[in-house]
Amino acid sequence: MPRKTSVTKSQKYQAADLLDPRTWINRQSYAELKEWLREATQQRLFLPVVIPHNVMPAAYLTQLLIQSEPQTKMYLRTIIPELIKEWGTNDKPESLDDLLILCGNLNCNEAESAISRIITEKLPDDAVGTRLRLRALSVLQEIGTDRSLRVFKRYIGDREYAALCYRSLYLLDIRYAVTELEGLIKLYERDNAGDELEDVLKILFKYTLKRPEYICVLQPLVDQTPSETFLKVLELLHKLDIINGSFFIQLSPISRVEFIKQIMKRSKRQEKEAQRIIALLRACDARLDPPVDIWTSAEQKNEREAPFTINFPDVFNLDLITPSELGGELESLAFCNVEEMALISALDGRPN
Amino acid sequence: MTNKQKSSTSDPLENIWWDNLEFDVSQENLPADIYNAFLAAIGQFLKTKNQDARPVDVIVKALGEPPVLFSLKGVRAPDAEPLSRVVDAQSFATYNVNYEKLGLGTSEKLKDTIWDMFRNGDIVPDRHFKGELRSGRNFFWGTPTRTLELLCGTQEIRENEYTVHPPDKADDVATEMRNLLGLSHIDEGVGLYRIDIPVKTLEQVKICAPTTLDSSPLCVFLPADNTTRYGWTLNLTNLQPGAEEVVVEPIEFTANCKVTQIGFVRGPLPNSEDVWSALAMIVKERIAKRQAN
Asked: Which of A20, A137, A349, B218 has a CA-to-CA distance to A195 between 20 and 30 Å?
């Protein structure tokens, strides 16, 4: 925490500061910087920063302050939270909006409790209040810790804030991506807002997780999604090109087989939808590549007999195929590669 | 901003602004009562402000209270035609995309995420465009679309969303656009979008040639003369008058607007001393020419 000095009038600036105010900003003391930023956000008097005539002030200030020296940024990371804390309902909404934009862009973590309080206590539920609450929640997403969980949980049931709160929660703990999805689906369904649900899933999978991380969400999702929405989620993920051929190909062989097995288990529990689930997986064109050749005994392989070949589509019927149907006992696995072992394990329930 | 920017001029930069204002008055770009009201505001400010206030303080204060008094007061109205506005990626993401509805946070990375989403066709105008086209004051600056259309071909991503075609020209186009429009606050590496506004959207709003009272005290800008209904940018490439400019009342940013993701500005800004010297010279030449006439 920087030492606070008594508030003094900001240092006078030179002509050169008008053209490039960064030097001026960097030489301000903590108190001077705070006074300047307070005046800038409350009264829109930014000098020696001259806001270009075609931009919004906060956007320009953000670019300017991001470039300031580490010491100045350290000051700002305390000053901005203090100014946010000072903001009251009688102050201009624009002033809070500017401070929030700066706060998020400069990653002012100290503002967490002040912003939580603004969201829950200071903002009205009218249009302006909603707009500011959205901005505040979006900043809290960036700087929030577990202490903000209660705020996100409080607002996730409101469609206006649902997407923000959902992402905020799963950024804190990825398990929320699974546990909160069901509620979100119901919320968007109720309001006939399927497009928004698609956006939320796109953001999760395409713009937050990396492809190898998909399985961390998809596996529990397949496990935990209630029956009534399981197929819907699966089809949506396919439609959004999240569950597709390349997703399966990039999975490790064991994960791939386990994942398919899991989905198939669900299809068995949801008989009416089993065919649609299988059709969807087929449409993914995911394959065990190369096709798995299974010999039912070492002798069979040694004698170069034709193996029992399982192409990918047949995997969907694994649970229906018993080892005896494969033509014999599957006891000797020594000649199987990892993929085959996983498949066989999936078949007969043995551990890999 | 660039590190090359420095000022050694003893002639205050605000003088260019005053010269431009004088030119505005001489060309009857401004109604006399507005000009007089502005002078009165200046006088009032000087009476109450301490002596060491800089001229730029005076201008900012006078323009700032209340801004509606002196904005959009130009008497020259351009023909009805599509207009365009060029915005940086940070502003576009922060003010014109409903990123909160998408679930995204306010952060330094936001502009990059929105950039990628736009390119991937994941920004849907109907759902994701929001806010107004405006600046910190109660209007925005635009240029006739025909001026910018010449600079690049485009490729459609989805309805009303485009990228530059061929893609490898995108950064060159962004740089050329920055320079043509005299966007002297946009430094290297900044991504640009072009927003085209159809005539129909412009029918109900006030549009006029900008006057000096619309510009900031340090503004690379040339007011209209009595032969044209537009102001002019200073082209940062050749430091000569560049593109035509107008000022427009704020417009709701909706799916009716066509957005082209341009590219990233490559190449530094010209030395600011050169820019201001060139601008000062053009302004003085215009005044001299007017006096000679």
From this structure: A137
